[in-house]
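Hi support team,

I'm filing this because I wasn't sure whether my run with nicotinamide-adenine-dinucleotide finished correctly. The job status page said complete, but I'd like someone to confirm that the output block is well-formed before I use it downstream. Pasting the exact inputs I used:
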Amino acid sequence: MSAQIPIIIVGSSGRMGVSLRELATEDPALTVTALVDQDDDLGETIAQTGARCVVDFSIQAQVQDTLSACAAGGTPLVLGTTGLAEEDRTALQEAARRLPVVWAPNFSVGANALFVLLERAYELLGPHWAAEIVESHHRHKVDAPSGTARRLAEVLMDARGDAATMTVGREGLVGPRTRDEVGISVVRGGDVVGEHEVRFLGEGEQVTLTHRATDRAIFARGALRAASWLTADGGRAPGLYDMVDVLSTP
Ligand code: NAD
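And here is everything the job wrote out:
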């Protein structure tokens, strides 16, 4: 068997961090060489450990530091943190010129299948069907709407073309719905791991596609699979990849 790939987990004390740590112990391809949480220096940790991949599920405020530390060390990155600002996305594109990055708002197999299924549903149903997304998460989630809901909306907007817009929530005298809106509604509470419902509303009929996460291990498993994929056979070329790439390329 080939040597295990040493990885660093950033956000290691969080809900996802704990799940990643547990599942990594069962993964024969990977070994966790260091844990980084707030107050730790990722750049120093990479230099000291020689880690071959960083897996970050922390907070938006850490993302720029993670990108700089990985770019400085040429260390491949799996980024799952959501709530990214425009400048984070720009820094992400910049870093991906120098190193391979898998960035996904949702690392589960099912949600990534949903991204692909949506394109097909839109193709069959056409632009006259309204598309609305409802996302639900536990009460601790700090960003809204979820990264997955945004990605679902982007898939629908890409299918719809230039005129498409994203409407997050509605309040007051908003007027009739326009044909080119993709709406997102947000629900927060309890211990909901993550639910995304895409409703296509037609005249006299509706189609609903739902992804329901009941265990956050699905995200951790996907992220570890992405870390193995990034580092296999000498490693991937620099670039920005997503989970659909990981699932569809051996
Ligand atoms: P959490 O609040 O339980 O954990 C966040 C962790 O990050 C905490 O341990 C916190 O101390 C740590 N942290 C804070 N500042 C830090 C810093 N500067 N450097 C390093 N660590 C720092 O949150 P969570 O539920 O584990 O989620 C973490 C992130 O992952 C969120 O952005 C969440 O939306 C995202 N998420 C993504 C997916 C996906 O599939 N992409 C799935 C679930 C969660």
